[in-house]
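Justification of resources, computational component.

The compute hours requested in this renewal are based largely on the per-chain cost of generating structure records like the one below. Each record pairs the submitted sequence with a full structure-token output. That output is archived, and it is also reused by downstream analysis tasks.
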Amino acid sequence: MKYIKRLFKYELAADFAIQIQIRPEQTIEHEFFHLSATGLLLIRRGYRWDGPSGPTYDSTGLMIGSLIHDVGYQMTREGHFDIREDRAAWDKVYRETIIAHGINPIRAWGHWYALSKFGWSSALPHEEHIYEA
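The structure output for this chain reads:
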């Protein structure tokens, strides 16, 4: 038997669209998301992500922020954005999104700070490891 270990907790049940401040030079198209040059991010039904990280509960604001942030980091891992130049922009979008969806700005700052210090490795390209049993 061969398998891949994944840490997904959630799967998007319907398409989700949101306008963000990140605008690529060219539209980024993927099976599960689309980011236009105008900053319209469409995440398609079926996208899987792990939700908010850290010691927290998965409230609505954090769920929306974590969805957008995970897509952004995935685009970075896939080479659409530069980790040194653009990762901080995705962290900022996360902070702004969770505040806009009801998270206290002080709490949002804590989440942003943790991402800015410890989130970089999640944006690095990596190969999935295939395990055997």
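The chain has a mean pLDDT of 89. Residues 49 and 67 are 7 Å apart (CA to CA).
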